[in-house]
Amino acid sequence: MNTFSAEDCVLEPVGERCVLIRIGERLDEEVIAWVHAITARVAAAALPGVEEVVPAFTTVAVQYRPEVFDGAQGLPSAQLMTLLRGLLREELTTMQMTARQIEIPACYGGEFGPDLEAVARFAGISAKEVVALHSSREMTVYAFFFSPGNSFSGPMDACLGIGRRATPRTCVEAGSVAIANGLTSIYQNASPGGWQVIARTPWNMFDLTNDPPVRLRLGDRIRFRPVSAEEFVTLLEPRP
Hints:
This protein is of the alpha+beta class. It is built from five helices and 15 strands. Keywords: ATP-binding, Hydrolase, Nucleotide-binding.
């Protein structure tokens, strides 16, 4: 168990309706744990005007309604930051979470992973070895953004530390498993994208008919299980 103090983070206004809490500059599991702990603390406090608390890799965005605050007492952002600093001065601890372990089917290469060979050339290994490295590594779900259910997880093997594509695609297929800058993302919806697509999962990661609609959650431990094209078709889930 570790402890945290207000001096360990930086608060700053972002526009007129958001205060950003910066927890650190590095992306690792310790910082992620603090992000989640601070998110839970702020959300539970029900501070005046706060509408949403949004965690990311190293920050927590606190979105609020400025009209709730008394303008005679100063800027709404300054008033909210005072309240937030008070919360963070209270003892805050983070303990090892009981994470779910989830195995996600994925078909690598070919039409499902058009960048697999390029990643192999970058790493100086075979495509088969890329699949083995990626699928054998247990990763933690760090954050969700870009679209509902779109997860970002890590860390990956350093050998797979390729960057984004030089030319983004105008359309990346829904379910695509893509890597870049040490992270793995699952594209929930078909959309433009510049990450290296190495596989595709038949699972639907976001479904409004489910409660909760997001299949994964922050802190989950995930591992990808290679499947054949035939098994992919068998496991394919409908999307709205």
